[in-house]
């Protein structure tokens, strides 16, 4: 695999953010706000942002719209990844994946263990690729979003990260 030179330019990505919640609003959505602020501060473009009820069919409809939109290359969601009866994000979204990124959830839980201990086993954070679109489903807490963004997503969505990153590979996700 050829590597991009160390002085490669930053490639801004269009990213959509979904907050999965039955109770969050624009006024109290701290996790969605955090993700929006961080991705734009990093130089990416907010392609869209939505708050969606924790309902599998509404989630699939929203994500499917973004997956089909060539102007959205990354989707990051927050919420619905726990183990309560209403938490349905992994079940709703994973069937849309063409490929899963198992290492994302594994790494997220490993990093989270250092912060919250054994409580991390309650996280069902998942990631995958659907129609060439990267999808990351994070827990709903702002702390969990901070952990995922700072430790995994920010470096992996930066085309300058070495030795490799997701940003470099996006154009190749739809290869046949």
Automatic annotation (TrEMBL):
It comes from the Bacteria. One of its GO terms (biological process) is Mo-molybdopterin cofactor biosynthetic process. InterPro entries: MoaB, MoaB/Mog-like_dom_sf, MoaB/Mog_dom, MoaB_proteobac. Keywords: Molybdenum cofactor biosynthesis. One of its GO terms (cellular component) is cytosol. Pathway: Cofactor biosynthesis; molybdopterin biosynthesis. Residues 16-160 form the MoaB/Mog domain. NCBIfam families: moaB_proteo (TIGR02667), molyb_syn (TIGR00177). Belongs to the MoaB/Mog family. May be involved in the biosynthesis of molybdopterin. This is Molybdenum cofactor biosynthesis protein B. It comes from Lamprobacter modestohalophilus. The gene is moaB.
């Amino acid at each position: 695999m050829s590597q991009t030179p160390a002085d490669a330019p930053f490639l801004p990505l269009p990213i959509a953010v979904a907050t999965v919640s039955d109770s969050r609003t624009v006024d109290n959505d701290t996790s969605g706000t955090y993700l929006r602020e961080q991705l734009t501060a990093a130089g990416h473009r907010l392609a869209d942002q939505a708050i969606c009820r924790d309902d599998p069919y509404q989630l699939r409809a929203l994500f499917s719209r973004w997956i089909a939109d060539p102007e959205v290359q990354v989707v990051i969601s927050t919420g619905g990844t726990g183990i309560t009866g209403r938490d349905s994000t992994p079940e709703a979204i994973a069937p849309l994946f063409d490929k899963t990124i198992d290492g994302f959830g594994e790494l997220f839980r490993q990093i989270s263990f250092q912060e919250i201990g054994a409580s991390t086993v309650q996280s069902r954070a998942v990631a995958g690729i659907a129609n060439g679109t990267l999808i990351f489903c994070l827990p709903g807490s702002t702390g969990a979003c901070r952990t995922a963004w700072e430790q995994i997503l920010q470096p992996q969505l930066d085309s300058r990260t070495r030795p490799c990153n997701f940003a470099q590979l996006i154009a190749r996700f739809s290869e046949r």
